[in-house]
Amino acid sequence: MNGLTDEQLLLRNLKDAGCDDSMIEQYLKLKKEGREKEQMRLLSLHRASLLDRIHEGEKQIDCLDYLIYQMEHKQ
Prior knowledge:
Blueprint: H1 6-16, H2 21-32, H3 36-74
Helix pairs in contact: 2-3
């Protein structure tokens, strides 16, 4: 698959998912130790963090939409 090893694909996936070097190092350490539950927990925490950022962005968009609405209906 693209000439990449499984580990290279894993690293690319983690980076594409927004994991920083520290998290990747921690994930690989857990993988090496066979601590799959802890790996899952780490990924789940990162996912929750990403969702929090999305929700914050949605709130900001809602605020902008409200301001735009007010300006459009003021004229």
